[in-house]
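JOB MANIFEST
job_type = single_chain_structure
chain_count = 1
residues = 190
[input]
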Amino acid sequence: MMKASPASRRSDVTRAAILDAARERFATDGYERATIRSIARDANIDPSMVMRYFGNKEGLFAAASVIDLRLPELGAMPGKHIGAVLVGHFLDRWERDDVLTGLLRVGATNEAGAERIRTVFAEQFGPVVAGLCPDPSDAPRRAALAASQILGMALARYVLRLEPAVSMDRDEVIAWLAPTVQRYLTAEGP
């Protein structure tokens, strides 16, 4: 096994510092107001290093917004629990992952952010839904409906901070949303 050179270790550290600073800056300022200079300043590096690693602001945003939804395995689960498991999973993710919240903030105001959210859900959520719904050809519609509930709650609870969405406990949110998500994913179509 080859050991990483000191230069490549420094490179990895620099790249990680830039990505951390970018995630924070995009989450705080949004895509339009975040600048390469402010991100470089936050990472304690020269702005030219950001350009060296990521090319431009769009490349940096794309790298900083890589997200794995880490969706649970739902295939072997009793169908009646799928909605509750998914809603609980997403609540847990929103609670622990500032990148998701930042991406939602950016996606609400910027086309690059919206496209990133669309891609993440199409590539990761869409195939899961196709494996659950009665008619796989209807999966995109069902995935969009389920995502509207999940993203809508995330927007209300974590971005807009609307009451009582913020103060509802986890079990209460699940109790309200799970039946609707369940129906979108597993019920026969209208």
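[summary]
The mean pLDDT is 88.
The longest helix spans residues 6-33.
exit_status = 0
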